[in-house]
Amino acid sequence: MLPKPVASLTPNTFEYEQKPLVKPTGFREYDARWLFGPELNLMGVQALGMGLGTLIHEMGVAPDIVTGHDYRSYSASIKLALVAGLMASGVRVRDIGLALSPMAYFAQFELDAPAVAMVTASHNDNGWTGVKMGAQRPVTFGPDEMTRLKEIVLSGKFREAGGGSYRYIENFGARYLDDLCRRPNFARKMKVVAACGNGTAGAFAPQMLERLGCEVIPLDVTPDYNFPRYNPNPEDMEMLHAIAHKVRETGADVGLGFDGDGDRCGVVDNNGEEIFADKIGVMLARDLSKVYPGAKFVVDVKSTGLFATDPELVARRVHTEYWKTGHSYIKRRVNDLNALAGFEKSGHFFFNAPIGRGYDDGLLTAVHILEMLDRNPGKSMSDLYNDLPKTWGSPTMSPHCDDEKKYEVVKKVTAHIEGMKARGEQLLGQPIRDVVTVNGVRVTVADGTWGLVRASSNKPELVVVVESPASEAKLREMFAAIDGILRQNPEVGAYNQTI
To answer: Which of 29, 190, 257, 374, by CA, is between 20 and 30 Å from 403?
Structure first.
């Protein structure tokens, strides 16, 4: 039996090589993330694999799992340690090798395996690792499954069983690309910047776009797990600015940025203007609701208020539900409601039947964005964007807050804002129109200006987003007001970026 994992070990000691290290805070709401070395060692990864195998058997799911890994210097070794643990608990492993997360989700269908364990830290800084897991395709684990997995792993109560096996699936990426390209080429000739941040998407995204008839301008597609220019994160302004510069330099029709594991896509228009993913979601909802009348959509609480107020969507009786931020939450909600699509401000987009299989795929998102342009041959990306009602929105801003403290801070902020509303106090000199607490706290004042505070699910950070349909001044006022409430808590540190 593998020894019971411990929460802390000193590297470069005999003990570090003899016990599994698994820091408890690595188990997040809907996936797992650790700093490899200080918070997780290879024996700890093996324990995670045994725990996941134990949980799969406990759930009554067939013990067949797809696994793959992203492009980082240590990801392959972590995956193999995970595989060792899975096999020890009686799981049959199908390894697709270097992969994007959506490629692993696709493999669940293509290889008829109910479970998935994708080794990736997504867009996190170098040094991080993690696993995205699921056992009920197309959804991935949520809080209930992650809580149970944490209990199994930390208790060391693993199921040891025979019957485990390993099979490597050679050249699976070609099958994934064939599936994405099984559609007519675009009628409109489009010049597209494909930015991959030196991450895994560079092996797949440019090739797909070329096969669909685009003129591809590659940007940072050469693999380099040191991420020399910026983290492959299309929600960060640094990556978006790099794409914008390349679009303006080349006269491209659109710039597309893919994150480290390829499940997200960021967009820059033909003028080099960054379009936040929630606005792209509104544009796609407008376009898709013409093709699929009465469509339902799900969006996260960080997203623009236009999903509820846009005149075109209102006129077409489009129903949109605001739900918890997080790829597993939105994915599951899209599946539960049989919605056509789900959109997150972070760039996770979920396309359900008949236009997808319900999981988040940055490359499929790129296809739908280009299909939208193809269906509007007389309009540029900037034209489609400018057709939306004007709002002023912030990027996602994240002040540091320790994992052990961030949820308590959000509780305090939520209580403060709910108290203001209960007492009839004003915010920005206006009545508080409503307070939504489905995920953190989102407060909206009378003119529609709103601010959100929630705990990040995968980093020791809070998340702050603000938007105003009234003016940029109101946007800045709301940020100042939200930040003022946050600063009542000394645990809250500096932002990664602000307006």
So the answer is: 257
**What tokens does 459 get?**
């980093």
| DSSP secondary structure code for residue 348 in this structure | B
Pair of tokens at residue 371: 């299909």
pTM value is 0.90
Q: Please tell me the distance from the alpha carbon of residue 249 to that of residue 193, in angstroms, as a whole number.
A: 11
Cβ count within 10 A of residue 52: 28
Nearest to 442 by CA among 468, 465, 461, 412: 465
Q: Which helix (H) or strand (E) holds 393?
A: strand 392-393
Residue 173 is which amino acid? G
Q: Are strands 64-69 and 115-119 parallel, antiparallel or unpaired?
A: parallel
Question: 210 CB contacts (<8 Å, ≥6 apart)?
Answer: 216
Helix (DSSP H) and strand (DSSP E) numbers for the chain: 15, 21
Contacts of 13 (CB under 8 A, 6+ apart): none
Task: Give the residue among 274, 264, 275, 331 at the shortest CA–CA distance from 300.
Answer: 331
CA atoms in the 13 A half-sphere facing the CB of 246: 23
As a residue count, the chain comes to 499
- 3-state SS class at 267: strand
Cβ-based neighbour number of residue 317 at 10 Å: 10
Q: Residue 386, SS3?
A: helix
* pLDDT tens-digit profile, the chain (499 residues): 899 999 999 999 999 999 999 999 999 988 999 999 999 999 999 999 999 999 999 999 999 999 999 999 999 999 999 999 999 999 999 999 999 999 999 999 999 999 999 999 988 888 999 999 999 999 999 999 999 999 999 999 999 999 999 999 999 999 999 999 999 999 999 999 999 999 999 999 999 999 999 999 999 999 999 999 999 999 888 999 999 999 999 999 999 999 999 999 999 999 999 998 999 999 999 999 999 988 999 999 999 999 988 999 999 999 999 999 888 899 999 999 999 999 998 899 999 999 999 999 999 999 999 999 999 999 999 999 999 999 999 988 999 999 999 999 999 999 999 999 999 999 999 999 999 999 999 999 999 999 999 999 878 999 999 999 999 999 999 999 999 999 999 999 999 999 9
Cα–Cα distance measured from residue 294 to residue 352, given in angstroms and rounded to the nearest whole number: 15
Phi, then psi, of 466 in degrees rounded to 5: -135, 150
